[in-house]
Amino acid sequence: MSPLTQSGSSTIAGADLRRKPSTSKMQRIKTVVGLWFFRRRTRQQLSELDTHLLEDIGVTHAQAQKEASRPFWQG
What we know:
By secondary structure, the protein is mainly alpha-helical.
């Protein structure tokens, strides 16, 4: 039997490998992934706005392109 499973259990250094991640961890993951999708979608939409609409929201074309080119994981 290997040192990792000497007792026949599925633990490594006291961590139970069969346990599911806690609900709070799963919720945080869902929240972060949702935020990434939101950023990706809104940045894409921003890049598609014409000059007239950008002026309405007080953003220049250069500012919109700079924001739209940022990776989704950057806030």
